[in-house]
Amino acid sequence: MKKNKVIKIVLLLIVCISFMNCVEDADFTVPESLGNEENEAVSKILDSISAGTLQLKTIKQLKELYIIGGDPLEIVSDIVVKGYVVSSDKSGNFYKEFYMQDAPENPTAGIKVALNLSNSYNKFNIGREIYIRLKGLYVGETNSGDGNITIGGKISATDLTEIENVTSNQIPNYIYRTETTEEIVPKLISFGGINASHIGTFITLENVFFDAKLAGKSYVDPIEDFDTQRKIQTCLGLGYDELLVETSSFSRFSNETLPEKAGTINAIVSKDFGGDLIVLSLNDTDDVYMNDERCTPLPIEEYSTILLAENFDAESGDIDVLDWINFREEGTKSWRSYTDTYSQSKAARVNSINSGDESTISWLITAGVNLDNTSQEFLSFETSNSFGNGSALQALISTDFDGNENNINTATWAVLPAKIVSNGENYKSWVHSTYLDLSNYSGTAFIAFKYTGNGNVNFDGTYELDNVRIQAKE
Known about the structure:
Layout: H1 2-25, H2 36-51, E1 55-57, H3 59-64, E2 73-74, E3 79-85, E4 97-101, E5 110-114, E6 128-133, E7 138-140, E8 150-152, E9 154-155, E10 163-164, H4 171-174, E11 175-181, E12 187-188, E13 202-210, E14 227-236, E15 239-248, E16 262-271, E17 278-281, E18 288-292, E19 305-310, E20 325-330, E21 336-340, E22 345-351, E23 360-365, E24 369-370, E25 376-385, E26 392-398, E27 414-415, E28 431-432, E29 436-437, E30 444-453, E31 462-473
Parallel strand pairs: 1-3, 5-8, 12-13, 15-17
Antiparallel strand pairs: 2-7, 3-4, 3-6, 4-5, 6-11, 7-8, 9-10, 13-14, 13-16, 14-15, 16-17, 16-18, 19-31, 20-23, 21-22, 22-31, 23-30, 24-30, 25-28, 25-29, 25-31, 26-27, 26-30
């Protein structure tokens, strides 16, 4: 009897050790098919959508229901959202969360799903098509004000402005996989064009490289307990532009050495913990391809012809620069002169604070600039803000506008891929637009700065503009 008992104990230990090794390796096989119960649940969702008893919302529509920094929104309607998983926690760079976007290719929106599930890549693998029944769940932020809109399972017990994970008991009743797994094609984005609308989507950047000062360093600083941000750069016209790659100290590739050459990086657009910065998060270093030589910016000394230069130092009250247009399309707020106490210089400023406006749309348009007498031109400017809130600022260009404010809305305006200050940026900071190449435009061009907001406290942000400049090469 003692011998049989020993054999049983040994066998039990072997089974336990084998199971522990499997868990530690976290190398499970993603199921190719689903159980009957899950298939039936998906079929019922699709039938309900067809019958009109369940409403299908896009990710963009869902995110628009929530105001950043506001209280969590409980979903009380019978709505469902569909998405394709684009992140993976297999390498440890994501934890108890995944991101999904609205299409396998060329997505228009993405969102974070917080859930109490480790190794979620075994269930929600990259490319997996999923449906989330939202009634009874919450939309909000796991860290209030971070700007990373999330689907969660409940309101935090310690902070009523934050949401917590969808619980392990909720997951089977709210998040459903289909049998479809699509190939996720990273969306090519211009470096300077990345903004909050890309959060939660899988993108690709070309001709990028890590800051030369990081040579020999790893993805994670060994002194950091949690996350490390490493600067990546690219050449944009007459200078460099930069973004941050954020890596968890718990990731399997935390100690890998950063590549020193240039190339392509594929990543999910996200926010840092405090919500101050847009960052890129890797699924794995397999998405980093850097074997090319680094670029160098164009020689700025060759672009000495100044076609436009305005720093607003001579302005007071409403902006009234010669041949510029300060136009209120809707609302009561115009662009006005503003003195920045930190930089000790003047700038142009616009907001809709205390306006009572249902809609505020204000334009500041430069004088016309002739682009036919030079071979290449670059536009640059700087922006700052005092809480952008839900308001927005765009830089646009038109070559068919005639300079008459009555014809602003009949002209063709193209949005320029400028880097404009984000809502979370420190109010003392000025953000450079990068150098925007205008060489594809000809004739007389007008540059416009268009502000959109309203009198609601959630959409009444303030933007400042300074040092608008077009420099060219003969």
